[in-house]
Amino acid sequence: QVHLVESGGGLVQPGGSLRLSCAASGSRFAIDDMGWYRQAPGKQREFVALIDSVGRTNYADSVKGRFTISRDNAKNTVYLQMNSLKPEDTAVYYCKYYVFNVWGQGTQVTVSS
Question: How far apart are CA 113 and CA 56, in angstroms?
Answer without folding.
Answer: 34
